[in-house]
Amino acid sequence: MAGYDGACVYNLDGELYAIEDRCSHDDGPLCEGPVDLTDCTVICPRHGSKFEIKTGRVLNPPAYAPVQTFPVRVDEGGMIKVDIDVD
User: Fold this and answer.
1) Which pLDDT tens digit goes with each residue over 12-38?
2) Exposed/middle/buried for 68, CB within 10 Å: 0-12, 13-18, 19+?
3) Is the pLDDT at 2 greater than 60, yes or no?
């Protein structure tokens, strides 16, 4: 994945989810944004775009495109692993 900057990992009711740490609007750091556990969303701290954590879908402007999601697993030693395919 070109321009990969990292991933945010969230625990939502015991299930782990990961999304890219980059707002599709201006590359803002989503990991620094507030999380709403009621609707499972994160808000970009720069301009307020909201994203669904489970799907990466953008819910409001100024962002227009979804963010990438990644599979998450816990290995036998208890370490959280995010499967990121970086070409």
Assistant:
1) 999 999 999 999 999 999 999 999 999
2) middle
3) no
Residues 37, 18: Cα–Cα separation, whole Å: 14
Task: Identify residue 57 by its one-letter amino acid code.
Answer: R
Strand segments, DSSP code E, in the chain are 7-12, 15-20, 35-36, 41-43, 50-52, 69-70, 72-74, 80-82
Task: Tell me the three state secondary structure of residue 31.
Answer: helix
Q: How far apart are CA 20 and CA 4, in angstroms?
A: 8
Is 7 exposed, middle or buried (CB count within 10 Å of its CB: 0-12, 13-18, 19+)? buried
Task: State the chain's mean pLDDT as an integer.
Answer: 93
Of 37, 19, 17, 41, which Cα lies nearest the Cα of 29?
A: 19
pTM above 0.85, yes or no: yes
